[in-house]
Automatic annotation (TrEMBL):
Identification of the protein by name: MFS transporter
Chain intervals with Pro residues compositional bias: 44-55
Keyword flag RNA-binding: no
Organism: Streptomyces tanashiensis
Compositionally biased region (Basic and acidic residues): 18-43
Recorded superkingdom: Bacteria
Pfam families named among the record's database cross-references: MFS_1
Flavoprotein in keyword set: no
Length: 442
């Protein structure tokens, strides 16, 4: 609806002639015609139309098409927490070696860190549906071929070769965030809520996915987890990409090169890499410390804390500085260290729950900053670079946490690693001035 053209006059702001006659009838009788109505006199919604819901998440999903693409994306994202656990269980059962299973899955992650940004660049250039569907089908086929190789107990080199094929998996979370960024590009509050919801969804899928995979593999057969994950992944991508009304339009080709050249991007990715080390080290250290059937549920409390904090953070009207979030993370990551020093498993569970509450706000703030730094025509590629940095940090943190768990001078020593990594991320953020640079939108 066009806004009134206000013109300054000696008597004060008056409505332009073409709006004056229509507007003057709506003014209260006790007011002068040249004064604007008080906000309390103005209805919140046009007659006959319901007022928007007060809950920011309800307002988010009141937008046409958002529920459909979110449902498809959640179906596609759940297998991201299933593939790794399913492959480890499947390979270990067939070959009797967890070392081999870990090496094979690590190979898939390493190759994916290279191919991910390339696939995201194609998505930016040709559209989500045109690239994501064949990439997802190719990745699902790779998982099925890996399943057949494991079932037939082929030579080990075939497992490494096959798992590299699965690295064409498109970044479904990044594509979903790109849709929110397109839909609410002029509404920062709604975009903040959308980013918080996406982070909470990430935590929920990575919390439920491994449990679902382990149940399938143990209750049915070792290959059941991989088979189910491949079917869910491909089906979810098909549902997601079928929602064309919310798909971002293909932006004109840009000569800007990689988003890495955007001001402030490289320091932000360095901070994300260091933050990834927090997550990787905490997971391995906690599993090694608990070392039993309750290790999974205890570790899941960290994801539960992050999910709850993410949903609460999405209701906030302001986004905190990344430096503030990292400072909170450095403090809260010390909670598992203090709890482990008591030797109480219940205290450790509470410490992990508190530590997880810093994860989602940090990631929401970092992703929001990345969306502002990255040119709009390269948003999917920028998201993929962030995921690559996080995965590299997770891998480094996992290796460091594993070494600490094996060579620790005392039981709780390993929990020093995530505290140190969070402190390093905070120092790096403050030293490089991440979040204070220019913001680019093209």
């Amino acid at each position: 609806m066009p806004q009134p053209d206000l013109t300054l006059t000696p008597a004060g702001p008056a409505l332009a002639p073409r709006y004056r006659d229509r507007a003057s009838h709506a003014l209260p009788r006790h007011r002068e015609p040249h004064t604007l109505p008080h906000p309390r006199d103005t209805p919140h919604a046009p007659p006959g139309k319901p007022s928007p819901p007060a809950n920011p998440y309800l307002r988010l999903f009141a937008h046409p098409g958002t529920r459909a693409f979110t449902a498809g994306n959640l179906i596609a994202r759940l297998p991201m927490g299933m593939f790794g656990v399913s492959a480890v269980i499947m390979i270990a059962a067939a070959y009797g070696s967890y070392a081999l299973a870990g090496a094979v899955t690590a190979t898939g992650l390493a190759v994916g860190s290279v191919t991910g940004p390339l696939i995201a660049r194609l998505v930016d250039r040709y559209g989500q549906a045109r690239i994501a569907v064949p990439a997802a089908a190719y990745a699902a086929l790779g998982h099925l071929v890996l399943l057949l190789c494991v079932h037939a107990r082929t030579p080990v080199w075939a497992l490494f070769l096959t798992t590299a094929v699965t690295a064409t998996t498109p970044n479904t979370g990044g594509m979903s965030r790109a849709r929110w960024a397109h839909l609410f590009r002029d509404d920062p509050d709604a975009l903040h809520t959308a980013n918080a919801f996406e982070q909470a969804a990430d935590e929920l899928c990575y919390m439920l996915g491994p449990v679902f995979a382990a149940v399938l593999c143990s209750a049915l057969f070792p290959e059941a987890g991989t088979l189910t994950a491949a079917a869910l992944f491909l089906g979810g991508v098909l549902v997601f990409t079928a929602q064309r009304s919310t798909e971002p339009p293909i932006a004109p080709r840009t000569t800007a090169g990689s988003p890495l050249r955007a001001p402030g991007m490289a320091p932000l990715l360095a901070v994300l890499l260091t933050t990834g080390a927090v997550f990787g080290s905490m997971e391995v250290v906690a599993l090694a410390y608990v070392d039993g059937p309750v290790a999974g549920p205890v570790l899941a409390l960290q994801a539960a804390g992050s999910c709850a904090a993410g949903l609460l953070y999405g209701r906030a009207h302001r986004t905190a500085r990344l430096r503030t979030c990292l400072a909170a993370m450095a403090v809260l990551m010390a909670m598992p260290l203090l709890a482990a020093s008591t030797g109480s498993l219940l205290a450790l569970a509470g410490g992990l729950l508190l530590a997880g509450m810093a994860t989602a706000p940090t990631m929401v703030t970092a992703m929001g900053l990345l969306q502002r730094l990255t040119p709009a025509a390269q948003l999917n590629e920028g998201m993929s670079l962030a995921v690559t940095a996080l995965l590299a940090g997770v891998a480094a943190g996992s290796a460091t946490g594993g070494w600490a768990a094996d060579h620790a001078p005392f039981a709780s020593f390993g929990f020093l690693i995530p505290v140190t990594a969070a402190t390093a991320a905070l120092i790096l953020c403050a030293a490089t001035g991440v979040g204070r640079g220019p913001r680019v939108r093209a």
